[in-house]
Design a protein that fits this description.
Helices cover 33% and strands 16% of the residues. It has 297 residues and is an alpha/beta fold. The protein has one domain: Rossmann fold. The radius of gyration is 18 Å and the shape is globular.
Length: 297
């Protein structure tokens, strides 16, 4: 639950910022922290959402996940350098992004949150959970990877979009550039969701996009990233979800995460779903997530 003293925040209407030293992070809160329907105003659990990208903002997760405010206090934030948050280029790395979550929670008094990470947000969430294993009560990793598998990505792109998509992915991830990203954006991003899910890709329409953050991460860190050994330190119950036709974090990536974490991890793959099962099959994704949050898994 959020602490009552927002001494580090600037409140501007309904938007809130927290200064964590080398960056100012934007965050938004949905749902009460104290349950007014209980005799003792009991605390409600907190669920923190970490968006994908990097280079996008938290709006890519809304409004779908707002539904969980009936059981949890929800916190959405923009990673440093993304969306409405600040932060210099030299601090755009997984160590810093993960430690930002730890500082954020400590400063605002958020104790033992559930953390949800989508795609890049899942990479940050894994790194955070491994570096601060005592700080999290549960972890949900959606369409993400502990190790980027370019071989599997190219294979799935070829299956979904032919040789044009496979070539665009190979070129972009092997040598990221603005020109390669524009081609990738046009050819490959539409393949992230099941083509029968007509509104699944609409989340990008209103997102704040900062391609320079995307290119920096892909070129400097993601292509060599391997957290498989590190995430064996994760102690909390972890739900790993993915789509069987996800081209950028293909099914093997979800399986590798579960294998690395071990007995605390639970895997659920969604048939005919792409990058973010909640976009292609929202009802089933909600059911699985609610079951995990309620300890039914």
């Amino acid at each position: 639950m959020l602490a009552h003293k927002y001494f580090a925040n600037e409140v501007k209407g309904v938007t809130m910022y927290i200064n964590i030293g080398s960056a100012r992070l934007f965050f938004d809160v949905l749902g009460e922290g104290l349950n007014a329907s209980t005799p003792d105003m009991s605390l409600r659990p907190t669920l923190i959402f970490l968006h994908g990208g990097p280079g996008y903002d938290h709006s890519t997760l809304r409004p779908h996940f707002d539904r969980f405010s009936d059981t949890h206090q929800l916190i959405y934030l923009d990673h440093r350098g993304c969306g409405r948050s600040t932060g210099e280029k030299e601090t755009w790395n997984l160590d810093q992004w993960a430690d930002d979550i730890a500082v954020f929670c400590k400063t605002l008094g958020v104790d033992q949150p559930v953390v949800f990470g989508q795609s890049f947000g899942g990479m940050v969430a894994m790194h955070y959970a491994a570096r601060h294993p005592e700080d999290i009560s549960k972890l949900i990793l959606s369409s993400t990877a502990a190790q980027f598998r370019l071989d599997e990505t190219v294979k799935m792109m070829r299956k979904l979009g032919g040789e044009t998509a496979a070539t665009a992915a190979q070129k972009f991830f092997s040598k990221p550039s603005q020109a390669a990203y524009k081609t990738y954006e046009k050819v490959c991003l539409p393949l992230y969701s099941n083509p029968n899910s007509l509104t699944a890709n609409a989340f990008r329409d209103r997102a704040i996009e900062r391609p320079e953050v995307t290119l920096h991460f892909f070129a400097k860190e993601m292509i060599e990233m391997d957290m498989r050994q590190e995430i064996s330190n994760i102690k909390c119950p972890t739900l790993v979800i993915g789509g069987t036709i996800d081209p950028v974090t293909p099914p093997v990536c979800s399986q590798e995460i579960v294998n690395s974490i071990g007995k605390n991890a639970f895997l659920h793959m969604f048939e005919d779903c792409g990058h973010g099962p909640h976009r292609d099959n929202p009802e089933s994704a909600e059911k699985v997530m609610r079951g995990f949050l309620a300890d039914h898994i």
